[in-house]
Amino acid sequence: MRRNKRFPSRHPEKRIALSLAKLETQLRPVFLAALAGDAAAYRLFLDAISARLRGYLRQMLARAGRSEASEAEDVLQETLLALHLSRHTYDPASPVTAWAHAIARYKLVDHLRRSGRHAGNLPIDDEAYQLAAPESGGSDARLDLERAMQALPERTRRLIDRVKLQGASVAEAANAAGMTETAAKVAIHRGLQAMAKFLSKRGKRPA
Amino acid sequence: MQTDDLISLMTASHQKVDTGGLRRATWLAALAALAVTAGLVLVTLGARHDFASAWMTLPVLAKAALGASVAVVALGVFQSSLRPGLKRGHLLWLAAVPLALVVGWALATLAQAPAGQWSALVFGRYWLACLIAVPLYAICPFVALLVLARRGAPVDGRLTGFSAGIASAGLATVAYSLHCPDDAVPFLASWYPLAMAAVAGFGALVFPRFVRW
To answer: Keyword Cytoplasm, does the record have it (chain B) (predicted)?
Structure first.
């Protein structure tokens, strides 16, 4: 690994490693715009980072002897929830890809520990995520998030269904539910919080 | 639920985010906890009797400066340990600078004193009181930082706890310097760092249980 770092040009990884730097230069301004309140930029960021993290998680899970895509998708969703709820922990002067990968790694280790697999053989080095290629084709997750949804209050669930399934804007969904747009945003936010909490409290139940 | 749906939901409820809040909250919490702790010291133990004349003397100022400088370094590390991907743990070594200065000063003091006085210089009158009081007065900042840590995303709970422990003990040192009647530098260089290490170790043990997210 050290040798790769010292003589990168002799190794094919260079292209991918560079593409992480490229991703960083592309994503940082997009994420900063998102933090300033730009929802479209946020969507762009989430699409790009989830492809990257999907590749990373699939590779790491495969190394831990688990190659089912649905499991990677579960951890990805948990990671995205955590990332969303931890936006305020991002330091604008630091690389956004390192921030996102640190969250993914934390959730991955947590997932492996919870499902009875120790994470001792996971590479801790930073190169691990540099080598992961992005994967854009999402696969079906297992039912984890669905179960988390069931634990939400009826009103929140209906709001979420409207936005998620019927593609309604928050304003429309809020209107239909008889609440203000801000209240609807807060309700969805609380719902996401509750779902994240549900997922991290599953205990040792086999995933 | 598809990942795309989840992304839609997150985008829909997205709002402007304040990334500086955690930093401000850390400093505010530290200042508030310091004020409360200083108040507690004054109420429970009272200021040292000669406070009016002693507070400008070098040993008293050194005590407060030691606590404050260590706390500032540790609070900086604590704050960044709540942000994933920032690897600032090594900056904690900066806290060793004031400690090393004090230890060097203490050794110089001992070297100049006759060996018969060494024990008096190190143990002073109330070494045990110092050793007990600093961890006790560290409770208030410790709890404040623990609550704060739960609002962040610490990926290394032990580092967060360790730095929170050092910071709490540093703040407690500043507060306790209002009361502590022992002014010998060897005393300062022995018991305060020991108390800080104890609280830091406790933090590293306790935090990981409470800051998982």
So the answer is: no
